[in-house]
Each structure stands twice: as structure tokens, then as C-alpha cells.
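hey can u check if this looks right to u? its 100 residues, i copy pasted from the old doc so theres a chance i mangled smth
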Amino acid sequence: MVTVGLLATLNAKSGKEDALASFLDSALPLAQAEDDTVAWFAIKIDSNTYGIFDVFPGPEGRQAHLDGPIAAALMDQADDLLSSPPDIKPIDVLAAKLPS
């Protein structure tokens, strides 16, 4: 069961689109290691807009994720990869279909 999540939108600097995509791809093992990260998706919205969508059983798992290695690495590389600060929104999950 998931009740909360995060929706992060990331705008790549011109010429850094591939580097941002690679960064997101490299974060998958970190997300897989987080017990309370039930589902984690790195997405491409358009040619320079990317995102992360993830869900958690409760607020504690979401906060642990925000305090974890993916967020730290993203903030560490934000000035190099992003044209603006990441837009990270906490969300409430109203309904979900997850694999069993």
C-alpha cells in the first residue's frame, strides 16, 4: 500500500540533457536499496525536461528518501546539470495499481 509520493521536475541545462538522463539512470540501484521506496520512476517529459516520480507507504519513507543518497547526489550536481532548481512536490496517493 502506498499513501504518499514525490513528483520532481528537472530542467536540463542546454547540452546537459544526456548527462541528466545518465544521472537518473544511475540512481536506480540507490532507489532499489531503499526499503520504503515502493515504486520509483525516472522519466523524460520532453527534450530538456525530466522527472522522478516515486511512492512510499507513509511520510516517514518519503522523508527518508528526501534525506537519502539520490536527493543528495541530485543537489550536489544540480548547478552543473539543471537550468533551474528542481521542482519537488510532495503528493498524496488517492489510488494505485501496483504489481503484487
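The longest helix spans residues 69-81.
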